[in-house]
Each structure stands twice: as C-alpha cells, then as structure tokens.
Automatic annotation (TrEMBL):
<comment type="pathway">
    <text>Amino-acid degradation; L-valine degradation.</text>
</comment>
<dbReference type="InterPro" id="IPR045004">
    <property type="entry name" value="ECH_dom"/>
</dbReference>
<keyword id="KW-0496">Mitochondrion</keyword>
<feature type="domain" description="Enoyl-CoA hydratase/isomerase">
    <location>
        <begin position="59"/>
        <end position="349"/>
    </location>
</feature>
<keyword id="KW-0378">Hydrolase</keyword>
<dbReference type="GO" id="GO:0006574">
    <property type="term" value="P:L-valine catabolic process"/>
</dbReference>
<keyword id="KW-0101">Branched-chain amino acid catabolism</keyword>
<comment type="similarity">
    <text>Belongs to the enoyl-CoA hydratase/isomerase family.</text>
</comment>
<dbReference type="Pfam" id="PF16113">
    <property type="entry name" value="ECH_2"/>
</dbReference>
<dbReference type="GO" id="GO:0003860">
    <property type="term" value="F:3-hydroxyisobutyryl-CoA hydrolase activity"/>
</dbReference>
<protein>
    <recommendedName>
        <fullName>3-hydroxyisobutyryl-CoA hydrolase</fullName>
        <ecNumber>3.1.2.4</ecNumber>
    </recommendedName>
</protein>
<dbReference type="InterPro" id="IPR029045">
    <property type="entry name" value="ClpP/crotonase-like_dom_sf"/>
</dbReference>
<dbReference type="GO" id="GO:0005739">
    <property type="term" value="C:mitochondrion"/>
</dbReference>
<comment type="function">
    <text>Hydrolyzes 3-hydroxyisobutyryl-CoA (HIBYL-CoA), a saline catabolite. Has high activity toward isobutyryl-CoA. Could be an isobutyryl-CoA dehydrogenase that functions in valine catabolism. Also hydrolyzes 3-hydroxypropanoyl-CoA.</text>
</comment>
<dbReference type="InterPro" id="IPR032259">
    <property type="entry name" value="HIBYL-CoA-H"/>
</dbReference>
Length: 349
C-alpha cells in the first residue's frame, strides 16, 4: 500500500550492522513468453518450503508449507528477498504473483515459535535477524517497481499481511480470513501494520490492530485490505490468464483483475463489519486504551461487549504499545514505520 526506498541502512542504525544480502542477476536471451523454468534455491530445506518459479513473463512465489498454513519462517524470508530483487531487475519479468499452497491459507503468520526458540537457544540476535530480514522484505514489496499480485485466498494473518498488503494488487476470495492477532500473544501488529492499519477507513485499522478481529470474505475487499475480490472457483483461471500475458503493461494486468472482479458475486453477502462502523469510529477515536475500554463499557451493546471481552484477554502492555504505534505510524512512511517496529520488536525480545 506504500512505496518507499531502501531500508537496509536504517535497520542497520536501528540494531547493529546489516549483513550483506548478495544476489546475482542473470538474464536469459530467450523470449519471456517461451520461458517456464523453476529457479530453485540453494538451501534444499528452504526450497521445499517456498517455490520460486519463472512462468512466462511472471515470477511466481508459492509459500509451500500447507501443513503449517504456510507460516513464514527464517529460511523462506532469507530466500524470497534476493529472488524478488533479482526479478525486479530482470527485463523479462513483468509481474510477480505470490500465493499459498493448499486451500486453507495464503500465510497464517510468522513462525513466532521458531523465532522464540532461536532466541532462547542461541541468543536474541538470531530472533532479531529474522524480524530484520522480514521487515526488509516487507519494504521491498512496498517499493517494488513492477506489478505485484498477492492471491490472499484463505487465512492471511500477521506475516501474511506483510507479504501482501504493501503490494500493488491484493485479490481476496470468499474464503479469505484476514487478521492482525499479535496483541493476543504479547506483541504488536508489525510487518508494517503501523503503516497500513491507520490508513484504512475511519478507525477500522485501530479496531483490527487492537482486537485482532477477523475480517472475512468480501469484507476484506470492502475494508480496503484487498484491491479486488474474485470467487475462489475462478482463482486458477485468473492466474492462468495473468500468466498468459505477453510482455504485459500494468494496465493489462489491472484490466484482467478488474474483469474477474466485476464478474464475481461481490454483493452476495451483507457486510458484517460495516454494520458497526459508526460505533467502531466512535469507540476507537480515543487516545488511550483506558478510554476505549470505557467507551465499550458505556455502549453495552452485544457487539461492544464482545470486543470488550476480547480486549480484556489481551496483553495490557501490547495494547498500549500498539495504540501508540498506530497513532505514530499514521504520519510516517512505510520505511519509517518498519524502522520503528524493528526497534520495538528488539525491545520485546
């Protein structure tokens, strides 16, 4: 949702020297429409967890951990980033498609358990490196100079948001479930959450960031999280049509997405979350967590009491930090927000 410059230097200042992420750039002389090869990563374990493929004029990223709902881990981040930068410089790559393997999830979040285990076993520095690399990847997506299409079918939470919302196009289906649940595990809505959440309409982003509320199906599009909505039964055809494009322009890609969007049953279900938007705007306009809680208590409606119950289960420290993070992020660039979030996550670890 935002475009910004290089983040490496700022994260180096924020938390120690930045390791060099070297990558090589090679361009084949074969025309892009004749190309269909798989660019495998050197780490065989990581190669099984994420697939990086050149299909025609597109670079295709498949998060390949369906048993774990495609949760993002260190190896995946470490290998996606240099390939993405390579494709950005490749004149025969015209768009990026990122998707999740299986039917259940695009990406259910980051492998937080793995990061915590690393912090305990090896040292906090290892966990810091995971978040540093992840945020650099988020920034690279936000500043990517070619069309980037995220097919957010199924569960899309936490790190999955970071891999999608900063890109140019996000395609939701009726099976999409979007959430930022970090305050429930003692963290804050990171991966650039401080940037994109405050920019959703009204106070919706504050509501989502503090409560971890799950936005489903068509509401993901209506909320502005997705740019398009496509019926899940047509998602494979959409991808095939995108891959069939020959040296496409941004307009060509947008036209295909819009065609599928307009043919989908976007108005089939009544919006659930927007029935409550006036109240959400009122409750979450407060500048303190205490006032938000008081607003919910005074309202007393079933929906308000449901959110109050959720908030009371969250980490009080996480709630307060998240609120300040979102307020500060509303006036910062994506790069500035990611730098802020890296400082925060180091303090949390």
């Amino acid at each position: 949702m935002g475009r910004s410059g290089s983040l490496e230097d700022l994260l180096s200042v924020a938390g120690g020297a930045l390791a060099t992420l070297a990558y090589s750039i090679s361009v084949s002389e074969a025309p892009c429409y004749a190309r269909h090869d798989v660019e495998r990563m050197s780490n065989h374990t990581a190669a099984a967890e994420v697939l990086l493929e050149r299909k025609g004029c597109a670079g295709v990223i498949t998060l390949n951990r369906p048993r774990f709902l495609n949760a993002l881990n260190f190896n995946m981040v470490k290998d996606i980033y240099p390939q993405l930068k390579k494709w950005e410089q490749d004149p025969e790559i015209f768009l990026i498609i990122i998707k999740g393997a299986g039917e259940k999830a695009f990406c259910a979040g980051g492998d937080i358990r793995g990061a915590v285990v690393e912090a305990v076993k090896l040292a906090p520095k290892k966990a810091h490196d995971f978040f540093r690399r992840e945020y650099i990847l988020n920034n690279a997506i936000g500043s990517f100079q070619k069309p980037y299409v995220a097919l957010i079918h199924g569960i899309t939470m936490g790190a999955g948001a970071g891999l999608s919302v900063h890109g140019q196009f996000r395609v939701a289906t009726e099976k999409t479930v979007f959430a930022m649940p970090e305050t429930a595990i003692g963290l804050f809505p990171d991966v650039g959450g401080g940037y994109f959440l405050p920019r959703l309409q009204g106070k919706l982003g504050y509501f989502l960031g503090l409560t971890g509320f799950r936005v489903k199906g068509r509401d993901v599009y209506t909320a502005g999280i997705a740019t398009h909505f496509v019926d899940s039964e047509k998602l494979v055809m959409l991808e095939e049509d995108l891959l069939a494009l020959k040296s496409p322009s941004e307009e060509n890609i947008a036209d295909i997405l819009e065609t599928y969007h307009t043919k989908s049953r976007i108005d089939q279900d009544k919006s659930y979350i927007f029935e409550h938007m006036d109240k959400i705007n009122s409750w979450f306009s407060a500048n303190t967590v205490e006032q938000i809680i008081e607003n919910l208590q005074q309202d007393g409606s079933p929906f308000a009491l449901e959110q109050l119950k959720v908030i009371n289960k969250m980490s009080p420290t996480s709630l307060k930090i998240a609120l300040r993070q979102l307020m500060a992020g509303s006036s910062k660039t994506l790069q500035e927000v990611l730098t802020m979030e890296y400082r925060l996550v180091r303090a949390f670890m």
